[in-house]
Amino acid sequence: MNDSWDAAERAVLTLPSGRLIRGRGLRNPLPEGPEPDFAVHLLGRTPPPVQWESRWLRWPDFRLPADPAQARELLGEVWRRAPDERVEVACGGGIGRTGTALACLAVLDGVPAEDAVAFVRRGYHPRAVETPWQRRYVRKFGRPG
Predict the structure, then answer these.
(1) Can you tell me the distance from the alpha carbon of 22 to that of 104, in angstroms, rounded to the nearest whole number?
(2) β-sheet bridge partners, residue 20
C-alpha cells in the first residue's frame, strides 16, 4: 500500500485487506494533514467543489442512494483505488450515509454482509448506519445481482 491514510488517524477504517478508507462529515472542518486523492460525496444536493478528484452520489439524508447501480459502481471505484490512494467517503454528518457506504465497502472487502454494520461500528463510529433501511441496504449489498 502506497500513499494511503495513517491507520491510527481518527475516522479511518481499516478493512480486512488492509485498505484504508476515511469517512468524514462535510459539515465539519477538513482534518489536518494530507488531503484525499479521491472522494465520493453522499449528499442530497450537489456538493461544494473541492481541490481533489471527487464524485457525487445523490443520497438524501437518512435515506438510500437514489441510483443503487451508480452507488455500487462508485463504491467499487473507492475500493479499487484504496490500496494506492487516499480515498474517502463523506456525507453531511459523517455517520449514517458514510457509515452505510463504509459497511458496503467492508462487504466488498470480504466481511459477511450480516456482520458489516457491526464491523464499521467497531472500527469507525459506534452509531454508523443509522436507520433500519440503511442496515437492510448493507445486507442486500452482499447479494449478487
Answers:
(1) 14
(2) 14
Please give the Cα distance from 134 to 101 (Å, whole number): 9
Cβ–Cβ < 8 Å for 21, 7: no
10 Å CB burial of residue 37 (0-12, 13-18, 19+) is middle
pLDDT digits 0-9 by tens, 36-65: 999 999 999 999 999 999 999 999 998 999
| Element spanning 49, H or E | none
What is the C-alpha to C-alpha distance for residues 139 and 144, in angstroms, rounded to an integer?
11
Nearest-angstrom CA–CA distance, 100 and 61: 12
